[in-house]
Amino acid sequence: MSFACVRTCIAAVIALLLAGCASVSVKIPVRHSAGIDVGNIKRIAVIDFRDASMAPGSGMKVATTLMSMLLDEGYYQVVERDRMRQILGEQKLAIEGIVDESDAVEIGKMLGVGALIFGEVSGYSVETVRGWENVEEQVGTGKYEMVERKNIFTGKKYKVKEEIMKTVLVRRQYVVKKAGVDINFRMVHVETGEVLAVESIPASYSKKAVSSYEVERLPADQSILSDLTRVVTGKFARKISPYTATEVRALEKGKDKLTKEGVIFAREGLWDRAIERWEDALKASPSNASACYNLGVAYEHEGKLQLAKE
C-alpha distances in angstroms, 184 versus 210, 227, 243? Predict the structure, then answer.
């Protein structure tokens, strides 16, 4: 894009902020870089984490969840659990309980990986608390009065008979569920023994239910712990691996036919046709701010980040 086009794109952003009604929103996948630079390592293994106290099996759940997330992103080659068990079983070693870098280096070399991820689950619990509380409620007094009301459609006023209410304190039972997952992660370079990443990441949950309907819909303990585990492992995965996230972008509707057609195609997911329309719009009018801005969004959607920056 030319410098003039860049300036018009900036103008388009300002216009979007000042005139929200002139834009439509679309969701696009955006590729983000890893938060931590781990070099050119591509093949890794995740060993079962040490279990939290009073939570047997929590370390294995953390490891399998992290492995699944890393496999979904597709950046690393992750050694499968069965393969790890086979290799380490031949050496009479387990795939859990690593506590230091020297063990990690030794096992990592056996597995033929560039880096090994291990750690410990320092918190993994759910607490349910039941109790009683006084709450204010409106109750009828048995007495009535005439109250003036207004018809919202006609504006005509009329009177109705309504019961006089009063505020009273009512004894009500409640249930509170609180949960927490806290995981310590370590990623070690197998060749050098260098610690590439050290992270301690917590996540918590708290919900109060005050009616039988709400109590019945409180999630089960294992469901809560699984969700929190995904949150924590997801944060670590995004620190060590590039990842894709869905984000909302605004498209300018524009005033010309080509720009408007491009927006319609983009909303239908036909991004290649949308790009054609906006490119034609820019050829017809290089100062078309809406087409210029939308084209940048489209390039980002298609993963053409350099073109999007330009």
Answer: 35, 17, 21
Q: Could you read off the pLDDT of 133-159 as tens digits, one per residue?
A: 998 999 999 999 999 999 988 999 999
Place of tokens 């953390």: 62
CA distances for 89 relative to 75, 93, 96, 101, 107, angstroms? 27, 6, 12, 20, 11
Domains belonging to the chain, first-starting first, are: 3-24+254-309 (1.25.40.10), 43-124+180-204+218-241 (3.40.50.10610)
**DSSP string covering the chain, please?**
--HHHHHHHHHHHHHHHH-GGGEEEEEEEEEE--SS--TT--EEEEPBPBPBTTBTTHHHHHHHHHHHHHHHHTSSEE--HHHHHHHHHHTT--SB---SHHHHHHHHHHHT-SEEEEEEEEEEEEEEEEEEEEEEEEEEEEEEEEEEEE-TTT--EEEEEEEEEEEEEEEEEEEEEEEEEEEEEEEEETTT--EEEEEEEEEEEEEEE-SHHHHHTSPPHHHHHHHHHHHHHHHHHHHHS-EEEEEEEEEE--SSHHHHHHHHHHHTT-HHHHHHHHHHHHHH-TT-HHHHHHHHHHHHHTT-HHHHH-
pTM of the model: 0.74
Over residues 229-264, the pLDDT tens digits come to: 999 999 999 999 998 888 998 999 888 999 999 999
The Cα 174–Cα 217 span in angstroms is 13
* Whole-Å CA distances, 192 to 106, 108, 110, 141, 189: 11, 11, 15, 79, 6
Q: Residue 212: its pLDDT value, please?
A: 87
* Amino acid, res. 54: M
